[in-house]
C-alpha cells in the first residue's frame, strides 16, 4: 500500500486554482431551540472528537443535560476551534447539535463534500488556525479568520479522483482499526470467561469498588491544560493532555465520569480534571491495579451499555462505589495479568500499525494540499 500511494502522489497541479478557504467552505449558523422536538439524537462536545481522526466516532445523547444548540448535518466537518493545537476535526455521519467551541464547516457548490475532511486534516491548516487563535489559557479561532487560509484547489472534475485516492488510504486504516477492535473484543471475552464466569463457578468473594478503592475527583478545569506541559493531565477526553503542575504522585486508576469512560493506569506525578475520578488502592487487599483496570473497565462498559436510553449517561461516585467485582487470589492475579499483558502486546502492535498508516495518510494529505 505504501508503494502504491507513493507512486500515485505525483500530481500535476498546473491547472489548480489559488483559493481562500472561505471561497469553498461556509459556516452554517443553524440552531435548535428545542432539540427533542426537532428529533435530534446526537450531542457532540470537544471530548467526543479524537485528535487527528477524520471520523466522528463518539457522541452523547439528549438524556444528558446540555446547553448546546448549534446544529450540524451529516457530511459536515466539526472543527475544534478551542485549543486548535489539539488538531480536532472530524466528519459527521449523522446530524445533531454541538458545542459552541466547535465550528461547523460545510462545502460550497465548488467543492465536493468528500474532499473537505482532507483539506481540514492538513498540518498547514491547523498551523494557520493556531496562529490566528486569540485568548489566554483557552485560545479560540474564528471562522472569519480561518476563511482567509490560502491553498491550491483542483478543478471539480479532478476532485472526485483525488477524493477516491484519499478515501482508499482511509479504508486501509479502517481495516486495521477493525483488526484492533477484534483483538480488543477477544480480550474482553477472555476477561468475562476467565474472571467473571469463573468467579461465579468457584464462588469468589465479591466486593464493591468502594471497599477496595478510595475514590475522589480532580480539581482542574479543561482550560488548565498546556500544550507541552511537564505532567500528564487526565480529562474526559481519550487523549491525555499535559499540564505544568501536579496534585498527585502515586499509582492510580483514572476514570472519566463522562465522555469515553476509558480507564487509564498511571504511576507517578499527574493531575486530573474535576469530572474525572482517581481510584487509589486502600491496601485492605493485595490487588494488582493493572489487572483491576481491565476488570473494572468491563463492569463500567456493562453499566454504561445498560444505561443507554435511560437518565444515566454519566458516572457519579455513589454509582462507582457500588459496582461489584470479584476478589482474586494474588497467585491467580499474576497468571491472569500475564495473559492480559500478552493480549495487550498484540493490541499495541495493531495500534502501532495504525499509527504508521496514519502517518502515511498525513504525509499524503500534506503533499496534496
Write structural notes for this entry.
The protein has helices at 2-8, 21-24, 116-120, 123-131, 143-146, 156-201, 209-212, 289-307, 317-322, 330-368, and strands spanning 17-20, 25-26, 43-44, 70-72, 77-80, 89-91, 96-98, 102-107, 150-153, 205-208, 213-217, 231-234, 241-243, 248-256, 264-272, 276-281, 324-327. With 369 residues, the chain is an alpha+beta fold. The protein has a domain at 17-153: DNA methylase specificity domains (Adenine-n6-DNA-methyltransferase TaqI, Chain A, domain 2, Alpha-Beta Complex), CATH 3.90.220.20. The strands form 5 sheets. Strands 11-16-14-15-12-13 form a 6-stranded mixed beta sheet. Strands 2-8-5-6 form a 4-stranded antiparallel beta sheet. Strand 14 (248-256) and strand 15 (264-272) form a beta hairpin. It is globular and about 70 Å long.
Task: Please describe the biggest sheet, giving its number of strands, its sense, and whether it closes into a barrel.
Answer: 6 strands, mixed
Largest sheet: spatial strand order: 11-16-14-15-12-13
* CATH homologous superfamily identity of the domain at 17-153: DNA methylase specificity domains
Total E-strand runs: 17
Output the CATH class name of the domain at 17-153.
Answer: Alpha Beta
The DSSP helix count reads 10
CATH arch. level architecture of the domain at 17-153: Alpha-Beta Complex
Spatial gap, N to C terminus: 21 Å
Strand portion: 15-25%
Order of helices and strands: HEHEEEEEEEHHHEHEHEEEEEEHHEH
Unreliable runs, pLDDT <50, ≥5 residues?
1-7, 308-312
Provide the residue-averaged pLDDT. 90
The gross shape turns out to be globular
Instruction: State Rg.
Output: 23 Å
Instruction: Assign the CATH topology of the domain at 17-153.
Output: Adenine-n6-DNA-methyltransferase TaqI, Chain A, domain 2
Amino acid at each position: 500500500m505504501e508503494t502504491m500511494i507513493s507512486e500515485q502522489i505525483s500530481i500535476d497541479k498546473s491547472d489548480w486554482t489559488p483559493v481562500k478557504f472561505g471561497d469553498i467552505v461556509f459556516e452554517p449558523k443553524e440552531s435548535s431551540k428545542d432539540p427533542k422536538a426537532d428529533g435530534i439524537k446526537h450531542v457532540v462536545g470537544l471530548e467526543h472528537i479524537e485528535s487527528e481522526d477524520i471520523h466522528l466516532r463518539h457522541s452523547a445523547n439528549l438524556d444528558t443535560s446540555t446547553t448546546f444548540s448549534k446544529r450540524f448535518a451529516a457530511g459536515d466537518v466539526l472543527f475544534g476551534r478551542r485549543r486548535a493545537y489539539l488538531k480536532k476535526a472530524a466528519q459527521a455521519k449523522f446530524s445533531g447539535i454541538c458545542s459552541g467551541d466547535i465550528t461547523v464547516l460545510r462545502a460550497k457548490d465548488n467543492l465536493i463534500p468528500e474532499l473537505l475532511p482532507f483539506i481540514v486534516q492538513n498540518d498547514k491548516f491547523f498551523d494557520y488556525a493556531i496562529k490566528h487563535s486569540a485568548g489566554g489559557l483557552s485560545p479560540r479561532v474564528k471562522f472569519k479568520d480561518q476563511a482567509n487560509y490560502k491553498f491550491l484547489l483542483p478543478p471539480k472534475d479532478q476532485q472526485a479522483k483525488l477524493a477516491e485516492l484519499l478515501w482508499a488510504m482511509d479504508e486501509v486504516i479502517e481495516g486495521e482499526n477493525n483488526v484492533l477492535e477484534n483483538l480488543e473484543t477477544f480480550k474482553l471475552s477472555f476477561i468475562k470467561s476467565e474472571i467473571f464466569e469463573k468467579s461465579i463457578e468457584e464462588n469468589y468473594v465479591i466486593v464493591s469498588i468502594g471497599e477496595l478503592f478510595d475514590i475522589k475527583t480532580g480539581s482542574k478545569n479543561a482550560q488548565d491544560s498546556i500544550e507541552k506541559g511537564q505532567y500528564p493531565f487526565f480529562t474526559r477526553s481519550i487523549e491525555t493532555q499535559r499540564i505544568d503542575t501536579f496534585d498527585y504522585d502515586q499509582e492510580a486508576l483514572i476514570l472519566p465520569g463522562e465522555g469515553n469512560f476509558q480507564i487509564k493506569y498511571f504511576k507517578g506525578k499527574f493531575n486530573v480534571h474535576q469530572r474525572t475520578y482517581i481510584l487509589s488502592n486502600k491496601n485492605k487487599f493485595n490487588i494488582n491495579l493493572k489487572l483491576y483496570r481491565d476488570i473494572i473497565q468491563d463492569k463500567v462498559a456493562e453499566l454504561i451499555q445498560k444505561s443507554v436510553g435511560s437518565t444515566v449517561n454519566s458516572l457519579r461516585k455513589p454509582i462507582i462505589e457500588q459496582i461489584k467485582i470479584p476478589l482474586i487470589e494474588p497467585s491467580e492475579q499474576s497468571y491472569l495479568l500475564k495473559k492480559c499483558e500478552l493480549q495487550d502486546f498484540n493490541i499495541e502492535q495493531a495500534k502501532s500499525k495504525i499509527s504508521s498508516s496514519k502517518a502515511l495518510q498525513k504525509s499524503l494529505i500534506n503533499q496534496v494540499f
